[in-house]
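Hi all, posting the design record for the shared folder.

TITLE: backbone redesign
STEP: 1 of 1
STRUCTURE INPUT:
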């Protein structure tokens, strides 16, 4: 048999749950706009060949023919990808995904 204390506790607890659910909100009153991004890809395509694919166009670079020299004891693939990532980072791009020969980058659309 249910005692008077148990019944009173259940009723008070139920009233508190109902009261709390009336004051809670599922979403903010004004929705925040979705952030839009544009993407770019850096692709290493050989000993010193790079492809930069951005929304404004594509660029094919033979890096070592432009005057950039490979430091001693550095692998050419990593050096070229790093050089291109730093170049796009200076324009506001940030890396999203890294693969062995590709870097996916993004920046917010204004």
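Okay, here is what came back for every position:
SEQUENCE:
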């Amino acid at each position: 048999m249910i005692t008077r204390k148990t019944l009173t506790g259940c009723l008070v607890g139920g009233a508190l749950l109902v009261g709390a659910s009336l004051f809670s909100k599922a979403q903010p009153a004004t929705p925040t706009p979705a952030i839009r991004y544009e993407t770019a890809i850096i692709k290493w395509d050989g000993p010193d060949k790079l492809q930069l694919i951005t929304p404004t166009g594509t660029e094919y670079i033979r890096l070592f023919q432009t005057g950039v020299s490979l430091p001693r004891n550095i692998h050419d693939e990593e050096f070229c990808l790093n050089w291109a990532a730093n170049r796009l980072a200076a324009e506001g791009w940030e890396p999203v995904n890294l693969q062995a020969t590709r870097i996916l980058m993004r920046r917010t659309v204004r």
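COMMENT: The chain has a mean pLDDT of 89.
Let me know if anyone wants the other runs.
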